[in-house]
Specification:
60% of the residues lie in helices and 6% in strands. The protein is built from 28 helices and eight strands. With 625 residues, the protein is mainly α. Among the domains are: 155 residues, P-loop containing nucleotide triphosphate hydrolases (Rossmann fold, 3-Layer(aba) Sandwich); 69 residues; 85 residues. The strands form two sheets. The chain has a five-stranded parallel sheet with strand order 2-3-4-1-5, sandwiched between helices. A three-stranded antiparallel sheet has the order 6-8-7, with no helix packed on it.
Length: 625
């Protein structure tokens, strides 16, 4: 007998990239009697291309083997595939009007005298195709017609890991196919474009495309179609312009001779087929996917999804379809960024994007605390999701107000972390939204203006900061009174901005007033009082009043250690200030020792890249020399 490939619809791919040992794994498992192997992964990761290459390698091998390709997207396509097998091997009775073709093929495949065979069930993504019943087959599901014959093997490509297990009967027979390695992705892009001179841009592009083979092929087709006016670098620049441009590029469908004629070559459409399937089978799982698509792609904590936790069955189906994975820590999930984008565009097309966007914002607003020091551990875990939320402004309504509060808290944390550009963007959006919804004199609006001004001050934009702080101060005086804590805070902020501009006499006047009022209203050891004492001491130092500055700084540092703790950022600021004061007094050894302690603690508490850490480290380096 000679090998027959008449039912295989694809030629060999000259651009194929051998991805590690996947083909070797298929070969080893198919060499066992009655073997069944499943390639499982997202749509577009190259499962069918691997199966095509393996089939051609079998064809080129020494052993005579029948190889049959069956499109398995629907029951009708599977039955067409069985009919093609019947014709290929010239089964008797196949042309009878009431012939049970699957039963005839089953009998032929079960007969070891007919030689070795291999069937590829491609795109077997719907379990009802194989386990749903049909009156035409006497109530038997199609899975019953897949024999476990010693002389045959079955290879399945599927997006559904649960179906893969049902068809193969063993998790050991499942080979998970993920995105490419960077090296393989670059090789694929180079083969598709024939030449690749923009190496840095190419590396950035395949990373932006999540190393998904279909997305890379799609991008290459787009670039080639517009050559020589288009390039990798130009495509990448367009891709980074924004979500709408990105979706337009990923919707490009150039056609592929090695994909089923009914399958789209646009990666977004490819994944949306999975979304539609999940929605039809389990709507609650589709809702969970929809919500998850708005989070940052990593660290999607289970606690954020559905109190008290996401439904296990909903999570399971998303994992079976490789749309989400469990995070390494095990308390949350991760997704591919392009899968999230595809989900959002799918929601937009069905008019549901705003619904799930608002759910996401509401959950984040309820979960993300203020940026105060005691909340930093929680803020750190959730902050990437706040950055994502900053791009998803809801339409007018209560959720818009929650969005502004979320960004206010996020800006507060980013400001204290020294991420001033991020803090400025968030604080500006929070301020404008609060002002639009609540009016300029509302407490939340004034808080947002105050925070925005503080960020501007730390960025050195002093005139704009001063204008805002003066406005906040006057409004608070009028609405709350001159000795209200919020009014005093705005006076202290204005004094700090004046101090940064070298207007020390004006700053001193405000700082003394704030300090004395806080001592009376809050107590001498209250954190706010200590802050005002530190501000006044800084002014004394800049005026050359070293002894007065030192006395206040020592008092602030010692009280802060007791009240706040030795590691609190405010305590570290007082250590930093005292070290500079000692340096100015000529106490170089004492100053260097204290600054070294401050720098080391700041590295541990704030991180090595925080502006305050860098400032202390720079001082240590300068003072040593």
């Amino acid at each position: 007998m000679s090998a027959s490939f008449v039912t295989i619809p694809f030629c060999r791919d000259s651009d194929f990239v051998n991805r590690g040992d996947i083909l070797e794994q298929i070969h080893q498992r198919c060499s066992e009697p009655a073997s069944r192997v499943a390639l499982v992964g997202l749509g577009g990761v190259g499962k069918s291309q691997l199966a095509i290459e393996f089939a051609h390698r079998i064809a080129a091998g020494p052993a005579d083997t029948w190889v049959f390709w069956v499109h398995a997207g629907t029951q009708a396509r599977v039955e067409e595939g069985f009919t093609a097998i019947a014709h290929a091997v010239k089964l008797a009775g196949r042309n009878q009007p009431k012939a049970n073709i699957p039963q005839l093929v089953y009998g032929w495949l079960s007969n070891e005298g007919n030689g070795r065979w291999m069937i590829i069930l491609d795109s077997a993504d719907d379990r009802d195709v194989f386990y749903g019943v049909s009156s035409d087959r006497e109530g038997q599901p199609l899975a019953k017609y897949l024999p476990q014959s010693r002389n045959g093997s079955i290879i399945v490509t599927t997006r559904d890991k649960d179906l893969a297990f049902r068809l193969t009967g063993n998790h050991r027979n499942i080979i998970e196919v993920g995105p490419m390695s960077q090296a393989d992705a670059l090789t694929l892009l180079q083969k598709k474009l024939r030449q690749l001179s923009e190496t840095d841009a190419a590396a950035n592009l395949v990373q932006a495309l999540d190393y998904i083979p279909l997305a890379i092929s799609q991008a290459a087709a787009y670039i080639q179609a517009r050559a020589p006016r288009s390039s990798v670098e130009e495509y990448l620049a367009k891709f980074r312009e924004g979500e709408r441009k990105k979706a337009r590029l990923l919707g490009y469908d150039a056609g592929d001779l090695r994909r089923d004629g009914g399958a789209s070559n646009a990666i977004l459409t490819t994944w949306q087929i999975s979304f539609d399937h999940i929605r039809s089978k389990r709507p609650t799982a589709a809702d969970l996917l929809s919500l998850m698509s708005f989070f940052d792609r990593q660290g999607i904590l289970e606690s954020l999804l559905k109190p008290p936790k996401a439904d296990d069955d909903d999570v399971a189906i998303l994992r079976y379809f490789c749309l989400v994975t469990i995070s390494e820590v095990g308390d949350g999930f991760e997704m591919h960024g392009l899968v999230q984008l595809s989900t959002r565009k799918w929601l937009e097309a069905s008019g549901q994007q705003e619904k799930f966007k608002q759910q996401f914002v509401a959950r984040m607003a309820a979960s993300f605390p203020t940026g105060a020091y005691g909340n930093w551990a929680t803020c750190q875990r959730l902050f990437a999701h706040v950055e994502a939320a900053a791009e998803y402004r809801p339409v007018e309504g209560e959720v818009e107000e929650a969005w502004a509060t979320l960004l206010y808290n996020g800006a507060w944390y980013a400001w204290l972390q020294g991420r001033y550009d991020v803090a400025e963007r968030m604080a500006r959006k929070a301020m404008r939204t609060h002002e639009k919804r609540l009016g300029r004199e509302d407490k939340r609006t004034l808080d947002s203006m105050s925070l925005f001004a503080s960020v501007l001050r730390d960025k050195g934009i002093w005139k704009e900061a001063e204008k805002l702080e003066a406005q906040v101060m006057e409004t608070r005086k009028m609405k709350l009174g001159a000795d209200h804590p919020d009014t005093l805070t705005s006076m202290a902020n204005l004094a700090s901005t004046l101090w940064n501009q070298g207007r020390w006499d004006e700053a001193e006047k405000l700082e003394v007033q704030v300090m004395e009022t806080r001592k009376t209203k809050l107590g001498a050891d209250h954190p706010s009082t200590l802050t005002s004492m530190a501000n006044l001491a800084s002014t004394y130092r800049n005026q050359g009043r070293w002894d007065e500055a030192e006395k206040l700084f020592v008092q602030v540092m010692e009280t802060s250690k007791t009240k706040l703790g030795a590691d609190h950022p405010d305590t570290l600021t007082s250590m930093n200030n005292l070290a500079f004061t000692w340096r100015g007094q000529g106490r170089h050894i004492d100053a260097l020792a204290l600054m070294k302690e401050c720098a080391q603690t700041r590295q541990r508490v704030l991180g090595p890249e925080h502006p305050h850490t860098l400032s202390s480290l720079a001082a240590v380096g300068q003072w040593r020399s």
